[in-house]
Amino acid sequence: MTDSARRNCWISLSDLFVDNVLDFQGVAVQMVRHCQPMSDEDIRRAFFYEVAPVLGPQTLSPAPLVWTEFDSDEVIKDVTARIQRRALSPLFHIQCLIGDFACRLWFAFIWKELAKAIAEERSSSHTGDMNAP
User: Fold this and answer.
1) 100-118: per-residue pLDDT in tens?
2) 114: exposed, middle or buried (C-beta count within 10 Å: 0-12, 13-18, 19+)?
3) Neighbours of 13 (CB within 10 A)
4) Is the pLDDT of residue 99 over 60?
5) CA nearest 14: which of 110, 118, 108?
6) How many CB atoms are located within 10 Å of the residue 78 CB?
7) Cβ distance 103 to 53 under 8 Å?
8) How far apart are CA 31 and CA 68, in angstroms?
9) What's the average model confidence in pLDDT over 10-26?
C-alpha cells in the first residue's frame, strides 16, 4: 500500500465523521477509486485504528466542530501524529488500545454499512468484493 493511497483513504473515510447524513455510497465510490491498492483488511484497519480514533469523538459531541467536511491536510496531520505518538510512547500505545476497542464498538454499525457499500461498488466496477469485519 502506498502512502498516497493511505492518505486518500483517510480523507475519504473522514466524510463518515461529519455532522450530516452519512453517504455510504459516496464514500464507497471514493474508496474504490482512490484507495485501489489497499486490501480489505487495510481499509478496515485504517477505519478502526487510524481515522475513527481521531475523528470519531467529533460525532459524539452534542455540538460538533465540523458540520460539512474536514480539511484534508488536517486529517492527514492529525492521523499521522497519532500513529507516530503511538509508536513512540508505550503509555500512549496502551491508551490507544483502549480507544481502539471503544471505536470498534461505537462505530461497528458505520463499518458494516460502509463495507456493504464498498462491496456493491466493487461489484459494479468488477474489481472484487469487500469482506465484512
Assistant:
1) 999 999 999 999 999 999 9
2) buried
3) 26
4) yes
5) 110
6) 18
7) yes
8) 19
9) 87
